[in-house]
Amino acid sequence: MTTHSIVRPPPSERPGTDFARLSRKIADAGLMGRRPGYYALRITVVAGLYVGGWATVALVGDSWWTLTVAAFLAVVFGQVALLAHDAAHRQVFRRRRASEVSGRIAGAGIGMGYGWWQDKHTRHHANPNHEDLDPDLDPDLLVWSQDQARAATGLPRLIGRWQAFLFFPLLTLEGFNLHVSSVKALANRSLKHRTLDGVLLFAHFAVYLTVLFWLLPLGMAIAFLAVHQCLFGVYLGSLFAPNHKGMPILKGEDRPDFLRRQVLTSRNVCGGRLTDIALGGLNHQIEHHLFPSMPSPNLRRARTIVRRHCEGLGVDYVETGLITSYRLALASLHQAGAPLRKTRAPA
Fold first, then answer.
1. What is the pLDDT of residues 50-64, one digit of tens each?
2. Which residues contact 192 (CB under 8 A, 6 or more apart)?
3. CA 146 from chain center: how many Å?
4. Residue 267 forms beta bridges with which residues?
């Protein structure tokens, strides 16, 4: 495993291609420029909410009302994760070092190994929804296609039969999975800066657990941890589920050009400014995949240009409401698990 910069359009996309013509339209509209004022305000607000949340835990103390703060901090942790995402894509800072430092700080704040996540996310962007190349389609717990279902063993085979019904309950474990995967990745010697990532990870765990068990009685601390991490997992999973699940899955030698590879496997979510805040701009998934380093507040303006360009090319541009996007994702999961429902689960 090696850490790379978040994917950019390949060199093969030379002037004259469909993507190059779109890229010129986006550049002419000034949408690739940095937004320092926006990110300064967003970072300040999120950092203030993060510090304020933990200060409230200290103030509320030995009261079951503190579990409402745990729910609040779950949302704040999700917003920190979105900031780490933007930093990794160099949306916040143009320079690599500033992007990595800010991304690592944000990752440390939520107990995420920055190097592990960046490597995984880079490979996802290079080949979204490709069954063999996208790590987000690894059948480690769920199956994403009927071919994976037929080959499934162990937990994926057991869970895959009814995975659409289990999807949101399983998201309660996603926060814990983020921590465990980050720690497991430290054993990979090819991971760059793994010592630094390890120090930051275990420092987060130490501070997090010390604060909880120092401020709260044992039972309440455990309840806080469960509520906080489970809701964080649900929010985190809900941020990414609408984007690609239920869209076409590529296999084998399926390698359309860059524009079609990104557009045809992604789905936008309609909504206003509140949706932009809640999903961190990932509701404009098509534009984000085409222009990963575009600052998230510019994605809404880019949408009109990209959609018209795709219409001119006859390329399907999919956009749905949030509830519909979840329905499509769950329907896709249910269909993927169909072969397992035709056979008896192993005893």
1. 999 999 999 999 999
2. 2, 3, 115
3. 24
4. none
Structure tokens at 134: 């996208």
Q: What is the pLDDT of residues 208-240, one digit of tens each?
A: 999 999 999 999 999 999 999 999 999 999 998
Tokens linked to 135 = 């790590």
Query: Residue 210 class from Cβ within 10 Å (0-12 exposed, 13-18 middle, 19+ buried)?
Result: exposed
Nearest-angstrom CA–CA distance, 117 and 83 = 13
> How far is the C-alpha of 26 from the C-alpha of 297, rounded, in Å?
14
On whether the CB atoms of residues 216 and 61 are closer than 8 A, the answer is yes
DSSP 288-338: HHHSTTS-GGGHHHHHHHHHHHHHHHT----EE-HHHHHHHHHHHHHHHTH
Whether the Cβ atoms of residue 6 and residue 90 lie closer than 8 Å to each other: yes
What's the rounded Cα separation, in Å, for the pair 144 and 288?
Answer: 23
What residue has token string 């509209």?
29
Q: Which of 100, 50, 48 is nearest to 208 (CA)?
A: 50
**Measured distance CA(10)–CA(23) in Å, rounded:** 13
